[in-house]
Design goal:
single chain; mainly alpha; 3 helices; elongated
Length: 100
Amino acid sequence: MLTYGLMAVFVGLVIGAFAMTRTVQANPDSVVPLWYGRPKVIPIGGIILRALSVGLALFGTVLVWPGLGVASIFFPIVVIGVPIIINVQHNRRVESGRSR
């Protein structure tokens, strides 16, 4: 189950980064809210991809738990953290006036 859990976490990570990248590309000149609010443009399927990403991360964590124990809590933090990093980089670029 450890292998399947790690695969689910990895796929969740990739989907989450992809969803946030699509959101950033759809809003090149506007700030994308981090926690509260909505971006000006939400790409088709963006919310579903984010939900799938978090769901896979939690499912993978449950599968990995018997093999790694408490250390598996690190996986959802990483899966949620990567889109946050992408969002923060985009918002800093937009606020400084260096949009793409």
